[in-house]
Every structure is written in structure tokens, then in C-alpha cells.
């Protein structure tokens, strides 16, 4: 487990997209008292992905981009990421229950395996093996 990982850490993370992710990092720190845990830039200098903590909780955020039909996270303003242990079984159960899969189960370039789906009201959810608490 990474340093500063709370015991029994949460595995559900709100994920937000901002017009300017870097500005959001500073503002969330100053206004709400969040602490930057990790931040990764895009090649163009915008914020690809960041993680901020507050107590035992964590949020994930980044800069919004051009809509990509293959990846709804590119421009969706708000969603939820859930870290699960057996992602293949989770995916099969969601698909069998009729979940609308919007990003098929696949391995990522950052070592996770995940998929995205919309719930009955169209909210974006992503499920995968990525555990942001393990970021050093």
C-alpha cells in the first residue's frame, strides 16, 4: 500500500472534468482544502489526470478535451470510478443485467483493466482495477 493510504481506504471516486484542470487543482486546494496527491500532464500541457485527497476521501479530475466517441471520459463533466478486484466478473454481471457499455473492457496503458457504462439515467460509471491510493 502506498504512503498516506488510509486503512480500509475508499474504492469509489468522483471524477470531474474542468475547462482548466491545473487551475482547478489550485482552486480546490485554496478554497476547499484538498491536497494534491498526484498529477499527470497531457503532451499539450493540459491536465490528463490528477488525484486530490481530503481526509480519507479522494477525487479524480482532469482537463476536458474534445469529445471522443470511443472514450466518454474525454469530455464528460462528471462521473464515478469504482475500483474492483475481479473486473472480468464485474463486467460480465453488468452486461448480463443490461448495462449500456460505452467503453468495452480493455487493458489500459497505465496498467489497469477497466470498462465504462451508463446507468438507467445516463450517468457515467467506470469500473476497473486502477487503485489511485497506490500512487507514490
Tell me what the structure shows.
The chain has two helices and eight strands. The protein is of the alpha+beta class and 136 residues long. The protein has an eight-stranded mixed β-sheet with strand order 2-3-4-1-5-8-7-6, covered by helices on one side. The longest helix has 12 residues, at 21-32. The N and C termini lie close together (9 Å).
CATH H level, superfamily name: 2,3-Dihydroxybiphenyl 1,2-Dioxygenase, domain 1
Q: Kindly provide the name of the CATH class.
A: Alpha Beta
Unreliable runs: none
Rg over CA atoms: 15 Å
- Please provide the ordered H/E string of secondary-structure elements: EHEEEEHEEE
Shape: globular
CATH architecture: Roll
Largest sheet: 8 strands, mixed
Q: Provide the spatial order of strands within the biggest beta sheet.
A: 2-3-4-1-5-8-7-6
Q: Based on helices, strands and strand pairing, what is the structural class?
A: alpha+beta
Strand content: 35-45%
What is the typical, i.e. mean, pLDDT? 88
- CATH topology group: 2,3-Dihydroxybiphenyl 1,2-Dioxygenase, domain 1
Number of structurally distinct domains:
1
Distance between the termini: 9 Å
Number of helices: 2
Amino acid at each position: 500500500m502506498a504512503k498516506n493510504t488510509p486503512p480500509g481506504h475508499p474504492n469509489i471516486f468522483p471524477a470531474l472534468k474542468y475547462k482548466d484542470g491545473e487551475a482547478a487543482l489550485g482552486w480546490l486546494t485554496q478554497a476547499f482544502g484538498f491536497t494534491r496527491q498526484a498529477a499527470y500532464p497531457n503532451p499539450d500541457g493540459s491536465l490528463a489526470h490528477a488525484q486530490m485527497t481530503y481526509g480519507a476521501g479522494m477525487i479524480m479530475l482532469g482537463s476536458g478535451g474534445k469529445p471522443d466517441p470511443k472514450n466518454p471520459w474525454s469530455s464528460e463533466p462528471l462521473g464515478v470510478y469504482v475500483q474492483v478486484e475481479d473486473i472480468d466478473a464485474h463486467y460480465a454481471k453488468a452486461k448480463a443485467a443490461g448495462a449500456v457499455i460505452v467503453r468495452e473492457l480493455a487493458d489500459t496503458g497505465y496498467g489497469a483493466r477497466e470498462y465504462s457504462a451508463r446507468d438507467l439515467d445516463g450517468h457515467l460509471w467506470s469500473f476497473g482495477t486502477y487503485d489511485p491510493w497506490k500512487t507514490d
